[in-house]
Structure formats: structure tokens, C-alpha cells
Amino acid sequence: MTNPLDELVTKALQRRAPTREEAAGVLTEEFDVLDVVAAAARVRRHFFGNRVKLNTIINMKSGLCPEDCTYCAQRLGSDSEILKYSWVAAEEAAEAAEAAAEAGAKRICLVASGRGPGQRDVNRVGSTIEAILRKQPDVEICACLGLLSAGQAEQLRAAGAYAYSHNLNTNEERYSEICSTHTFADRTSTVREATSAGLSPCSGAIFGTGESDSDVISLALELRELSPDSVPVNFLIPMEGTPLEGQWHLTPQRCLRILALYRFFFPDVELRLAGGREIHLRHVQALALHVANSMFLGDYLTSEGQTGDQDRRLITDAGFVIEGKEEATLPEQRQDLVHIRRRGVGTDVAPNV
Ligand code: SF4
């Protein structure tokens, strides 16, 4: 009889999703956690070899957000003693991006708190993107500015943004438990708008907010419908002053199982270790790299990560190499799925009819 984990690997290599029943097995004690990691590692190695992509966050505008996401220290009414500031100047962001790129970061994530950008904000981020690309023309720039209005994704793309990030965070059924000021549908529609504008879609999750196994699986299925190129996996940092303060539900084993499950659901997608990896994975961060092919370097939006030296040591000690800026992250077959239109209206080339 075929081992169920071998069956999951076979399906993943064919880009087929697990069934809900198969997925549930990965999250429970049905299989030993090391067997689960080893199976997911086979998929990771098949599509991504031993490369680890590094990304860095630049928090362009911190705190004072009118939204009320329960997991976020920047939310309305948060008592967290985080840094609070308005927009960082383009040159300051460009200097931070330069330092990150020299330290190995391939993607620069420009993040701003708030429900979504106004026109002045889009212009400001556009100027920042241009300032960064003048110094570091080879980096990928991802904007993460909240809910987008019509035309904003196109403007960001025109300014040089490569990707847009907007996490779904939790599944539709329980979305109102973690936020009351916008909806799950608002989030999916922004991801779709970014994709339509030719931006590489990045959309992920946050775990540790009280979700069940079934919720973890539902979110994976809902994310798959958006066909993201990258899926960041955050583990809740239960910051003081937020409604989820003191909620420590995760164990390192639980985090590994979730990551492995997401590798089975997103076999050829950039799976990124995001916020909370240090405090929740702790001494098994290296095991997580056998599942995820990407991670953040440096600090997060409002909390500090481990040092860059520790991150680089983690990667090399586990037998991985930092992905070069000239290397494609996604496997060739996947990159070929999306072709930016270069014909038809708006061009001099005949339409595809
Ligand atoms: S997650 Fe974003 S939208 Fe929600 S409160 Fe934090 S900064 Fe605001």
C-alpha cells in the first residue's frame, strides 16, 4: 500500500492539491512531524533546489491605522508601544533598501499602515520605488499598502513595482473574528486587481489567532483560488496592547505541520517564513527551511527579528544558499503561466483574435 505522505508528494509534484482529509492528516498526529517535514522537503527541493530567497521589509508608515485587525499592533486604539511615524522619505527608504540588497535581500517590501493609499500616497510610493531602483536596479519591489482603489495597481506597476502583497490572513468564515472594518471579499478583490495590473500576487496567512485545523485548510483552498506567486506564512506575535496579547497557542511542531501543509498546497509557489518565525519555530527554524524556500531578513513591521548574521548562518548551517538576484525564484513552468499583454489595444501590435 502506498504511504499517504508519498501520495501527497506525488500529487504536489503534479501540482495537485491535497484533499481536505489528506490535509487534516498532516496537521494531526497521524504522521510523525519529521516524516511530514521530510515529505514536504522533497517537494521543496524538486521546485526550488537548495536556494533561499531573502526579502526585507521597509515600514514606510508605522502605526495610527484606522482599521482594527486584532493581531496588529498598528490598529486603531492599540496601546502597543511601537514606533509611530508618518511617511519615510524616499531617500531614507532607498538607503535602507541598498543596505538590505547588499546583505542579500532580493525583494524589498514597502509596507504602509492604513486602510489603503490615497493618490498622494501612491505618488509618494512611486517616487520611492524609483529612488530604490536607481540605486538597486536588480531588486524586486513589492508594495503592501492595503486595499487598492481602481487604477492604483496600474500606477504602482508603471512606477516599477514588481509585486503587490495583501494577505488574506484567515479564512472567509472566520474573517469577521479578526477584523470588523473590512471584509474578506475586500481583501480578495485587491489581490485580484493587483494581478490584473500585471503585479506578481503575494498573499498569505497568519496563524495562531485561534483558528482550527479546518480553518487552516479552508484558507489554503481560498488562497489557491487567487493563484499567488508568493505565500508568506506569519505566526502571531501576540504584542502587548492588542486584543490577542498573551495568546501563545502555537508550538514549533504545529508551525512545521502548517508549513508542510502549505508546501503541499503551494508546491511551486514561493513559500515564505514571515513574522513570528523566531519566537514560534525557535530551535527548529532550520527544519522550516527544508519546507519554505524564502524568508524575511532583518526586522518586521513593529518588532525586531534575529540579526542578519544569525539568519545567514542559519541558511548556510542548514546546507542552503542565498538565492542570487539574477536567478528566477519560481520554476520555469510556473513563470510561463502568466504573460503580460504586449499586444492589442494600447500597443502597435495586432490583437490576439
Ligand atoms: S494589518 Fe494593516 S490594515 Fe490591519 S490594523 Fe494593521 S496596518 Fe491596519
TrEMBL record:
* Function (record text): Catalyzes the conversion of dethiobiotin (DTB) to biotin by the insertion of a sulfur atom into dethiobiotin via a radical-based mechanism.
This protein's name: Biotin synthase
Q: How does it assemble?
A: Homodimer.
Question: What Pfam family does this protein match (any one)?
Answer: Radical_SAM
Gene behind this protein: bioB
As its record notes, the protein acts as a catalyst of: (4R,5S)-dethiobiotin + (sulfur carrier)-SH + 2 reduced [2Fe-2S]-[ferredoxin] + 2 S-adenosyl-L-methionine = (sulfur carrier)-H + biotin + 2 5'-deoxyadenosine + 2 L-methionine + 2 oxidized [2Fe-2S]-[ferredoxin]
Q: What EC designation does it have?
A: 2.8.1.6
Molecular function (GO) terms listed?
A: 2 iron, 2 sulfur cluster binding; 4 iron, 4 sulfur cluster binding; biotin synthase activity; iron ion binding
The record's SMART domains line, in alphabetical order, gives:
BATS, Elp3
Per the similarity annotation, which family is this? Belongs to the radical SAM superfamily. Biotin synthase family.
**What region holds the Radical SAM core domain?**
47-268
Give the keywords, sorted.
2Fe-2S, 4Fe-4S, Biotin biosynthesis, Iron, Iron-sulfur, Metal-binding, S-adenosyl-L-methionine, Transferase
Answer yes or no on keyword Iron-sulfur.
yes
Q: Which cofactor does it need?
A: [4Fe-4S] cluster; [2Fe-2S] cluster
State the HAMAP family in the record. Answer: BioB
Q: To which pathway does this protein belong?
A: Cofactor biosynthesis; biotin biosynthesis; biotin from 7,8-diaminononanoate: step 2/2
| Domain of life where this protein originates | Bacteria
For this protein, the parts annotated as crossing the membrane are none
Q: Name any Gene Ontology BP term.
A: biotin biosynthetic process
Kindly list the positions annotated as binding [4Fe-4S] cluster: C65, C69, C72
**4Fe-4S as UniProt keyword:** yes
Top EC class, one word: transferase
SUPFAM superfamilies annotated for this entry?
Radical SAM enzymes
Q: How is the cofactor bound?
A: Binds 1 [4Fe-4S] cluster. The cluster is coordinated with 3 cysteines and an exchangeable S-adenosyl-L-methionine.
Q: Where does [2Fe-2S] cluster bind?
A: C109, C142, C202, R272
